[in-house]
Design goal:
- The protein is mainly beta.
- The protein folds into two domains: 33 residues, no CATH class; 621 residues, TonB-dependent receptor, beta-barrel domain (Maltoporin, Chain A, Beta Barrel), CATH 2.40.170.20.
- 6% of the residues lie in helices and 66% in strands.
- It contains five helices and 40 strands.
- The chain has a 27-stranded antiparallel sheet that branches. A five-stranded mixed sheet has the order 3-4-8-9-7, with no helix packed on it. It has a four-stranded mixed sheet with strand order 24-25-29-28, with no helix packed on it.
- A hairpin with a 3-residue loop joins strand 10 and strand 11.
- The longest helix is centred in the N-terminal third of the chain and has 15 residues.
- The protein is globular, with a radius of gyration of 28 Å.
- The chain starts with a strand and ends in a 19-residue tail after the last strand.
Length: 678
Amino acid sequence: MRNFLIPIAMLTSVAAVAQTETTDSLRSHELGEVVVTGEKPVVKSAGGVMAVDLPAIVRDKPVTNILEALGYLPGVVNNNGMIGLAGASSVTIILNGELTNMPLQNLYQLLYTTPVDRLKNVEIMYAAPAKYHVDGAVINVVLKTPKPLDGLQGQIRAGYNQAHYGSYGGALAATYAVKDWIFDLDYGVSRTKSWNREETWSNHLLNGGRRLIEDDMRRIGRNWCNTIFASAAWKTLKLTYNGQIISGSKAQSLSAGTLGHFTNEHDMLSPVGYHNIAVRYTAPFGMTIGGDYTRYAENRSQSLFRDADYLLGSENRQAINRYHAYIDQQHQLGKWQLNYGAEYQHSVDHSSQRYAGSDHPDFDDRLNEDVVSLYVGTQRAFDWGLSFSASVKGEYFHDRYQHEWNFVPQLGATYYKTPASIFQLNLSTRRVYPSYWELHGGTSHINDYSTVIGNPALLPYIQYDAQFNYILRQKYVATLYYQYGDKATVQLPYQWPDALALVYQTINMNYKRVVGLNLYAPFGVGYIWNATATVNVFNQREKADRFHDVSFDHSKWIFYGTLTNSFKFSQDCPVSLSVDFSYISPSQQGMANLSGIWRMDAGVNWQFGKKRCCELVLKADDIFNRWSPTMTIRDAGQDYRMKVRDMTRNLKLTLIWRFNGFKPKDNPIDTSRFGTGK
């Protein structure tokens, strides 16, 4: 809410004096100050782009970074730090309209270390035009741009997180602007120690009889994580570096059950390193040229013991070099905008797995991948209320398994006659690729009974998404959506019929189809109480004719709901409170049924110091520890149940100090295909 003060008293007084000069029968009468209250629009839309004033939405919530803030966007689900968008099969996050080739976990870490103060607004595109070099849905995080007069600005943050174990970390974000130069630095360091518990019951059918295999496993992991973002921009030329180094990484799982006591140790033999350097130049005549280089390296060992007996060991290595270049051109032809361009990406993945004390075969494999794409698109806004953006991309993909062309059309249209009613239609297509490690067919042992295996036969699949949005009064949003994944993938466990062994493997299904309705409604009472309710109801169907020797065709209605609340005692009160509730009804994953889950979060933030430059945030997540489902499979002879206790319950304490005003940053990601898994 905003208050606009109008000096009506002054205007009335002047008018009265003027009239007194002409007639003594009139007296001047001074009116008091009049307050006109208006509401700033939260959601705007044009050309398939939904612009959201996210800083206004999270103003009174215990939010310190952009990753947490994204969870309050219309239609967005933040599931333990993983961002999803209702109505979209997946979503890519970019910064300031630019994409970088960062792994997903690196992007999330960067967003976690980026202060929410830098946020200008957020754009949601269910069908991103091809000029963004992204297929499908996009969340574009728009950051403030510093000006020379701002000088050096920044923020220092320190925090402690208590779950089963304690974790801690800190971050520095700073910008410096002088003449034609803008410098940006974002550095975060964290020490993390995690814990979860996994209970499994496998009623294994073997040789006509059933054998129950029970296991109770506890996982403990720890590491140091350093994340660096740095950029230097001079006029229209920009150089950016993104990096992450994970060191001291160790993981241990201890399991006890029917087959004995097992210890599974994972050690990083060298720090996990991710490095990306990018350059981008924008010419004055509408051309943009850019490129980047990515290096990823991981070297991990595994040792498996039963009691004190050594069973096997392995060493997993992955080294990826990826080169990416693009050129874009944009023309303004009257009221039409024409854009076209080309993109090329070459990657080399060198992965290996070597065993000790086991007869499992080793592999040492090099996978080359080339992707070439050409696109053309157009944008137009008509005076009678319609605006749209359309593009088509031709993509050629080549590796040793396949080489083929794919055509990727995108359409986003908005009908905007009055702010009271806005209609939006989005159609998108994208090609989804499996991770590099899965394609090599590597094996990771959980214990002597359970393994995770790769699938060299795994195919990319085509995803089709459609959404129809209705925006009422620039604040209420209803989304009707349809999704279809042709040969969509899913990971499932499978009990071998001729051996006492359980394997987890990712497969291609025939298809996955989802149709649903999402409703977003903010409400409240002035500054005292602000709330947002989100309801998502959808039907999900997954079909596979062949998963090893079984098949499935399951359909289920699923409900997701959340209610966020923030409270303030006065409009200028430095203290605000929040209480949030979330619930997901029983759902499914392939032939597996997942139990319903719910959570309650609460927090308080206090701003203090000169010009409120300091902030103290205390937040409790999943207070009752109910945000972990139970998975059950009883289908085609398969009988399996798993209960995961992730210990999502935690208590966070964060202290923030802002210096010299404070403002922004630039850069972003595609989803990760890196990593050897566990």
